[in-house]
Design a protein that fits this description.
99 residues, alpha+beta, three-stranded antiparallel beta sheet, two-stranded antiparallel ribbon, 3 helices
């Protein structure tokens, strides 16, 4: 059984809000990802789905991960204040660098 690696990173948006991403990988794949922070978004329960969209992706396939984040914000029609979709991508990039 491959060992799991877990990292949590904090990214601060240009508007001063915090995005925290905790990500767990195993055998080069994302097995868990959760975005939290002090940004404002509605409906709040939808943000759990954002992390779930990354599960199963190869950690080297950053373009696919970024596409999933873009699709999430396009399709879910979420109201977001204090952060942007790009901030979530930056948090993910920071997390991937630490793996």
């Amino acid at each position: 059984m491959p060992a799991e690696t877990r990292r949590c990173v904090i990214y601060r948006s240009e508007k001063g809000k915090t995005i925290r991403l905790c990500i767990t990988t195993s055998d080069g794949k994302i097995v868990h990802a959760t975005f939290t922070g002090d940004f404002f978004g509605e409906p709040a329960e939808k943000f759990q789905k954002l992390g779930e969209l990354l599960i199963g992706l190869d950690i080297k396939d950053t373009s696919r991960m970024m596409d999933r984040i873009d699709e999430f914000f396009e399709k879910e029609a979420i109201w977001l204040a204090g952060a942007s979709p790009e901030d979530f991508k930056q948090a993910l990039r920071k997390a991937l660098k630490s793996l």
